[in-house]
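Section 5.1 Outputs to date
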Amino acid sequence: MGRVGTKKDHEGRGAGFGVSLGFFPGLAREAVLAKVAAAGFREVELPSTADVLENWLAAPLATRRAVEAAGLRVRSVHTPPEGWLNAEPDEAVRQGSVRAACACLRPAAELGAETIIWHANYHETPVPAGGLSASRELSRRSLGAFAERAGALGLRVAVENTPELGHPRPCTTMADVLETIAGFGNHVGVCLDAGHSRSNFQDPAAEARAAGPRLYAVHLQDNQGAGGDEHLVPGRDMEGWDRLVRTLDELGYSGGRMFEIHAEESGGDPDVTLKRLAELVRRWSAL
């Protein structure tokens, strides 16, 4: 299969497609990397969990050698679930979240990653009516500590728009993400999760335009309808997906475009999922 990890549009701008390795839990490192490379991808994102690439966090240099030997690169790393509690009113919990998120930074730098995906809050924690500003301030406090550590290691931080899922809170819209990162250095930007935008009744293409030059990462995943967050292979409202890809090209966006599909979507056969993702890249490369 031909290479699908990079394309050039008519103006010569690069646009890298890749996959998050979260839908390969528990598989041997070399087997995972071989599957991704065979599908034609050249970029990956790594979740910070022990079940990915034989606990890459414990052996980042060996992982980097294996990744490069497979002809791949790690474009981005996602903080662990324990590091998503960044707006918790319990100060001990919030500080523990910051520490958990920071734990992936040095391994990510050793991998050669350029961007770290960061969550401002956790969707299962209710935000009281009238408490959005207070919640945002807690996130900003956590982000300040995290971004300082990341910047010292030469890493960019991309704050992700997250799904509301019935719990209104900051960072479910691009405007709110931009408000949350306001005042931080240029190494702090935005991760647009298109599936989360669609879940939140937002148009991903419009959200990408709103992010503008602060757009540092993109997640590509779908759901069964607004309000869901199933992390499916994109397939609903393909005109909207095409519009997003054209918008990214028009913006001159050159960061990663990572498919973030959950393990259950592979139906026990990640090779089938990879084939479907490669077909989508070919569709979008022809726009």
